[in-house]
Design goal:
By secondary structure, the chain is of the alpha+beta class. It has two helices and three strands. Strand 2 and strand 3 form a beta hairpin.
Length: 82
Amino acid sequence: MIAHTYLTHNYDELEITLTLSGPISKLNYSLSSFPPRPQGELASLLITGYGIEKLKSETANIVGNQMVLYFAALLLLLLLKR
């Protein structure tokens, strides 16, 4: 499954791609973008709307937890569709 989103951050337009692969029990994901940005930066932008440079270390932990919750919810939706 591949999902695309487009956003503008600091006047830069980004195309972000979320790729899910593998069986649901061992689902793998990756984030990529054009122009290229690190996965942590992309996750931060998608979840909070802020770049990682604006987040403090405690906030980064919150973002990490939110990312886990986001993908857990996505997995649940995939399971419910079966």
